[in-house]
């Protein structure tokens, strides 16, 4: 509890200073418009909007740069978002004892060519099958949703 009571760092320490980051690469207005077009996002409606977007993008790039500088020497890469301790791995290990119940549900059919039949209980999937995938789409074209974007000026 004592360790967690006083944080040792803050996300704010990774953000650029209010005066603006000097080490962050500068993003031009043209690059911003190109990124917005690739993302199918609308261009800024005013110069103030554009400046705000450029400042936000610059702050995000500064944040990523600070994260990339964190020393991860000796840190194991994350394989999955789950408990990766030895105890959890042992708990999830499949052995003959853990398969006993699954084997008990199998039925061997046939005298000469024995085939295994598994108990196939039907699953009620009507909620999944009747899901309206395009229900929240603003624009549709047949069975597809439409993303509006502007073509680049050539």
UniProtKB/TrEMBL annotation:
Biological process (GO) annotations held by this record are: glutaminyl-tRNAGln biosynthesis via transamidation; mitochondrial translation; regulation of translational fidelity
Looking at the record, the residues that make up the Glutamyl-tRNA amidotransferase complex subunit Gta3 domain are: 25-78
- Chain segments carrying region Disordered: 1-27
Origin superkingdom: Eukaryota
Task: Kindly give the Pfam families that the UniProt entry links to this protein.
Answer: Gta3 (PF20978)
The record, for InterPro entries, names: Asp/Glu-ADT_sf_sub_c, GatC, Gta3_dom
User: May I have one GO cellular component term?
Assistant: glutamyl-tRNA(Gln) amidotransferase complex
Q: Which PANTHER family match?
A: GLUTAMYL-TRNA(GLN) AMIDOTRANSFERASE SUBUNIT C, MITOCHONDRIAL
Q: What name does the UniProt record give this protein?
A: Glutamyl-tRNA amidotransferase complex subunit Gta3 domain-containing protein
